[in-house]
Amino acid sequence: MNEHALRVLEFNIVRNELAGLTACSLGREKAEAMLPSDHLALVKEILKDTTECRSLIDLRGNLPLGGVTDIRPQIHRSTIGSSLDPRDLLDVQNTISSARSLKTFLQRLEDYPRMAAQAGSLGLYPTLEAEITACIAPNGQINDNATPDLARIRSRKKVTAQRMIDKLNTIVSGPMRTMLQDPVIVQRGERYCVPVKADHRGAFGGIVHDTSASGATLFMEPQAVVDLGNELKELSVKEANEVARILARLTDGVRRLAPSLTETVSALAQIDFTAARAKLSQVQNAVEPVLNSNGYTRLKAARHPGIDPEIVVPIDIELGGPENQILLVTGPNTGGKTVSLKTFGLITLMAQCGLHVPCRSAEVNLYYSVFADIGDEQSLQQSLSTFSGHIGNIVQIMRDMRPNSLVLLDEVGAGTDPAEGAALARAILEALRTQGARVIATSHYGELKTYAFSTLGVENASVEFDTNTLSPTYRLLQGIPGSSNAFAIAARLGLPESVLEGARLDWSGSNETVGLLQELEDGRRQAIQDAREAERARLEAQMLRRKYEKELEGLEALRREARDRMEAESRQLFRRAQDRLDNTLSELRKASSEGRETERARAKIKEIESDLQSAISQQVIVEEDTITDSAPSRPLRTGDHVRIPSLGVTGEVLDDERGLSIPVQVGSIRMNVPVATLRLIGDDRNGRTKKEKGEHRLPASPPEDKHEAAIPITFASNTNSHTAAGSDGGDMVQRALNITPQITLLGQRADEALRNVDKYIDEAYAAGLTRTRIVHGKGTGALRRAVQDYLAHNSLVESFATADADEGGAGVTVVLLRST
Question: Where along the chain do its domains lie?
Fold first, then answer.
């Protein structure tokens, strides 16, 4: 990346802010060395890391990076044979401890796989961490119990020192006290002494280790403690040797793990750097840019990261489309042209570093290189004028530039004769356009506005200026050429009107095409805007149509599925009810009188009525929501043949249609059915009916005896039949789903047990069970005989037998039901 561009675009503003958000010197080093990249895949991966870490920090706060230091110097010294001191080892211990905590924290988070992957490079060093913790205290001192030898040495040293102190105290408080200047114990070097008057040196006896400045006082080690002092000195030497041995052992542990520790340090640096990028995104309220390599960049509400967010004016800017390979920005001085130029360049560099950008939304092209010529480049030392400095930079840019480069030129062609400068600026822009560069240039030259209007791929832009207040708004307006507003500013500052009028006449005479140019530019801009809006509306309409078509297909599939399911359930309920009805009627035929058997049969028939009404009601719901074939084309009449789709059967209408429901004879069953659920069979244009070929019908069997004929099945029609029947049907289905393969009769009387068995057999059969168990217990055998006698006469029972010993033996009867 071009170093000159990084400097003039003030890229260090971003670097320094990012470095200030790192947690340790490792991340700071990476932030300060950050450079843009033109490798699309790499930058996209970095951006994904930034985005995921931003999400993590938003929800869970900052990463636990406390305690991390740069231990690379310690690792290096360990590999060249130098022994690490306790402070060095504590830095190692704190860093690997922080790495362990960070790894645990990140790898527990299932929603942040990229951060967990970075944490995977962090090593765990439990042995080294434990050894350093055991040997070195937080204050940097070696622990007494670091080794048994050190503990023993220090213990002896304490005892010896105490013995020496005790003897010295005896001396300073005993008969020899008169020989001392003061009754105190002092240290000289590593020896314990007392201050002896010089004239008592011979009488006191001992070793002189120091004298006072006047020579009147001798600091002497009494002869009585010399041996103890020697012993203490030897113990100190042993202690130092043991400490050195401990440090060497711990240093060797670091040396053996040096490659892995280096990798961990690198991973910590990367995680800290990623976290800093995420925190920068938070601070700047930035967004993830969408990257491309097609040369197109579009920034919405872009803010310069170096300007106070409270005062910065966001700009919208677009570059690289078919209409604006080059963007020419004109307008008054201090209007924001240079800031717009730097904002675009700096945000581009940030995106190419994998940073979020301070915009509302951003789509950014990854440029091969970014070049910039901004500011006054004159140099007194090199005798370069402003013009020469600019041209020198442009020459270097054109020499180094390749396709897919971004070139930012401030006041192109300025600093020389206006006519020559305008011609030169136009030639430079045309050369850059021909080479495929994307260019933003600022200028005051009116000739360049005409060039932009007449050249394909070059677009005018301007910074807005409020002529009433004579102040810039700092907004960038693309498609509109700007004005320097020199007359308005001069008038506001007090220039005489006569002077201004003369200037206007001269200027308008030489710029007759300015007004027409402005009108044409405005018209072109509006046409482009209208075309974009129309295309956007067309795409939105197309997307909505596809969305609604897909939703409609899904709804139709759901409705078909619901109808099929409800019809199947209704048919099953009807078949089961028909079987139970046949069985009940058979029992009635066998009954000789209206007794208990008849009452039970009537109760069963009431249940069958509920089941059939449930089937009909379910179809009402389906028909209302999902039926697609048409209702009868005329009112139904007596004798019409109709189909009940929910039951898969046909029947004959028994009365003319007069209301919402109509009586229908289905086989031996008479029922009231909602007209909306019926389909007329074979209806021709004259209203006649004929039997539908292949239609399944239940046979209309004539009554076999007076009992059957005396009990017609009729359903009363009422306005609440849908709700009530639906509820009954729902209960029936629920009972079928909850039926168990076993009934227990223990403790029941025979008549009570038989009623329960009768009900249970019916429900088990209706639910489709083929094998059940009746637990009646052994006892006297009376209940077993009563149950088995009942089973022998029940038409729903295929066979039964006493259970095997492992299933309950004589206390259980196993029943096989007929297939439904």
Answer: 3-125+257-284, 145-250, 290-511, 562-731, 739-817
